[in-house]
Amino acid sequence: MKMFRLDARRIDWLITAALALATIVWLLAVEGRQGIGRDEGQYFRAGERYWGWFEELGTDIRHGELRRPFTASVIDRYWSDNAPDHPVIMKTLYGLSWRAFHRCHCTGPTRGLHPIPVAGRHITLPLFARESTAFRFPAIVFAALLVAMVYRFARGWLSRAPAAAAAVLTLAQPHYFFHAPIACFDAPITTMAFAVGFAYWKSLRSPRWGIAAGILFGIALGVKHNAWLMPFFLVAHYLWMRRGDLRARRFPRPPLAFVSMLVLGPVIFYAHWPWLWNAPVARTRAYVNRHLQHEHYNFEFLGLNWNNPPTTTARKLIRATAPFVETGFTVPVTTLVLAAVGAAVLIRRRRGQPIVDGGPAEDAEPGADEPSWLRPGADVDRAPGAFLLAQTLGPLAVLAVPSTPIFGGVKHFMTAMPYLAVMAGVGVARLLPVLAALVPPTRARLTHLAPAALAVLVCMPAVVETRRSHPDGLSHYNLLAGGFAGGASLGMNRQFWGYSVLPMLDDINRDAPANRAMYWHDVIHDAVSMYKRDGRLDMGVGDTGFGEEALRRSQVGILFYEKHWAIYEGWFWDSYGTTKPFMVRAREGVPLVTMYRRDQP
Amino acid sequence: MEPVPSRSTTRAGLAALVVVSVLALVETASALIAPHRAPTDDDWRAAAREIRAGFHPGDLIVAAPAWADPILRVHLGDLIPVDVAGRMDDERFARVWEVSQRGARADAARRGSVAAERRFGALTVRRIERPPAVVGYDFVARWTEAHVSRRGPGAGTVVACPLSGDRMQCPDIGYNFVRRQIVEVDTRLRVALFAQPVGGAAVVIEYPAVRLGRRLAVATGLADVWRRKEAHGTVDLRVVVDGAADVTLTTGNDDGWAMHAIDTSARAGQVAAVRFEITSRAPQARHFALAAEARE
Question: How far apart are CA A468 and CA B159, in angstroms?
Answer without folding.
Answer: 62
